[in-house]
Amino acid sequence: MRVRDLGMGFDSDEIVLFKFCVGSCQRSRGNYDLALRTLLANGSLPKRTARKVSAHPCCRPTGYEPVSFMDATTTWRTIKSLSAADCECVG
Q: What GO cellular-component annotations does this UniProt entry give (predicted)?
């Protein structure tokens, strides 16, 4: 991924490794998730509220790595907590 494409405000064409989390968390569903899914499906929650809630846990970073690169002015830069180091189902 080009540093410039990350949207962090740095002017650099340097390529960095950006790791992210993906995947389904179906096995991590708890009673909360099951009840919320049913309430959403049967229309028990107001539509305005239903649009804002997530009925399932999601795969998110639980640990991060810094990313270092050289910008267009040949200055070394480091962005802390940018790339995912560990992922888990949370929510």
A: extracellular region
